[in-house]
Amino acid sequence: MNLGALSLEKAPRFWTPVRFFITAPFFGVLAALIVFMDGGQLFQSRWSMASLAVVHAFTLGYIAMVMLGALFQMLPVVMGAALPQAGRAAAVAHLVMTAGALCLVAAFLRQEPALFVAAIALLVPVLVLFGAAVVVAIFRAGKTLTTGRSVQLAALGLVVTVVMGAWLAAGHAFAVPLDRSFTNDHAAWGFLGWILMLVIGISGQVIPMFLTTPQYPKYAGKGLVYLLVALLGAGSLVPLRELQQLVVVLVSMLMLAWATLTLYLLGKRRRKRFDITDRFWRTGMLCLVLGAGANLYGYFGGTVAGTDISVMTGIFLLYGFAVSVINGMLYKIVPFLVWLNLRMPVVMGKLEPGTKYYTPNIHEVIDVQPMKIQFAFHVAGLLLLVASTLVEGVVAYAAATAVLVSSLLLLANLSHATRLYRKYAGQVIAVR
Amino acid sequence: MLSVSEFFSAQHRACDRVFEQLEEAVSRDGWPQADALYTRLCQDTLQHFSNEEEGLFPLFEEKTGMQAGPTQVMRGEHVELRELLQRMGDAIQARDRDEVLGTAETFFLFLQQHNVKEEQVLYPMADQALQGSLQELSARVPGFPSSDQA
User: Fold this and answer.
1) What is the span of the domain harbouring residue A174?
2) Residues A215-253: tens digit of each pLDDT
3) pTM of the model
4) Which neighbouring-strand residues pair with A307?
């Protein structure tokens, strides 16, 4: 923590994080279109090329996309860790990420070696450099709290995930026989080491602050994240079946415990008013409980209605947990960023005394009602996706429709905010 | 003896509680109660600001020699928070529920990020810088216990 942390002047410009945020729903649309084209076959196996395409549309195009944007915003303001040339770096990273994610999705769908090579060439440098920059920036910031340490470990998890992913993609490109257990390690590092690690770190700061819950207990801080990364390391490095089974059980327990704790804290919110972020987070935590349970059950050979439940587990963890939590956070962050950037002249004391200068309040930036409608479609999409793993046929199309509508509504809501920013940002200059 | 962090953070929490009650009163159109809670919120918040601007900040600047540093940033944010408080008050007077709640949400989010910065950066720095000067602080900040009381 240092002095730079205090200054809003050090906060990145509006579009630095927002360009990432606004791209995410496009990948939601893309994922829905793939389900349409595929006709629901992909729900039968996690190994089908269409399901790999959909998974990566979400993990890279939606989840990592938003998380990168959020980190570009958070690091300088919250942790006092400035990334060098953040504005320009963000613009380039966004472009390369978008292109790389599109290449990888297309590569899975078309089984085209050149596309896999392009995806590797685009994604590996940008994500590894970003991960390394975050790790170094937080070390430089000096003494760090739980959030800083979790974010740092998450960045490390991102690097490990990407390197493993590149190796797997090279296997697709050059027809090297792939060891499927390695895919599990890639998925485990991606979900636990990157996504969950980051969410745990950010929640510790954000949930008590924005959702007025009691603080997380001390043991859910640094201890939890060190334990998680230790288990993950042991599970993927030690080729001992009994140990790996133990790790799966322990990690699932940790997920269950943390999700339950978060649900308990959300139940203790002091502000009783309806809050859309709260709804998204509760949905996310409930899905983390279900996903952890399904993972454990499936790992030891459990099936539902005779089918393997790994696809269902993936839906709970990625769409139900990660996408829900991120969607909820976007509804807190984006309106606040619009307002904050429009108020900068006042906060920085650059306005002539006595000047009348109107800024819309946060509810006017994105109205509550359209967010509620989008939430309803998101939940419908989630339930229908889960149903599609159990029932073949028309349900898959219904699921794709709900995901499509939810993504388009999210895009519409975020665009409303950015249009308002553009409209009023003109005034800022006029006043200056 | 009470530390800077403890004393000033406790004031943040106390103001939060009043804010939460005010917001709840407005959501169920309890306007007379909202008027009273708003008055209290203003009193408590403005008192806290003046504790900082006239007590803690000048002493901090004196001891550290940082005039244009973090305290200046915090003063700037206080200006914005006062303005939001005023806007909320105008909306309460006009009984404009949507505007009150929208402005309340805005005020709350901005206030929380402000408080986090004070509690995680400025107060810990002040705890260090003002070691041995707490007597002076208690002379300037009403309610801050002097060592003979503690």
Assistant:
1) 3-431
2) 899 888 888 999 999 999 998 888 888 888 899 999 999
3) 0.91
4) A304
Q: Which of A89, A82, A79 is nearest to A16 (CA)?
A: A89
Chain B interface includes A46 (CB < 8 A): no
What is the rounded end-to-end Cα distance, in angstroms, of chain A? 32
Q: Which residue of A has its CA nearest to B28?
A: A273
Q: What is the CATH number of the domain that holds B90?
A: 1.20.120
Rg (chain A; Cα; Å): 21
The number of folded domains in chain B is: 1
SS3 assignment, position B65:
coil
ipTM exceeds 0.95? no
Q: Distance between CA A340 and CA A330 in Å, rounded?
A: 15
- Could you give the number of structural domains in chain A? 1
Domain limits for position B126: 4-138
Q: How far is CA A53 from CA A108, A116, A174, in A?
A: 6, 12, 18
Q: What are A378's two structure tokens?
A: 């998101």
pLDDT, tens digit, 9 for 90 and up, residues B39-76: 999 999 999 999 999 999 999 998 888 887 788 889 98
Identity (one letter) of the amino acid at A175?
A
Among A292, A153, A279, smallest CA distance to A223 is for A153
Q: A368 — contact with chain B (CB < 8 Å)?
A: no
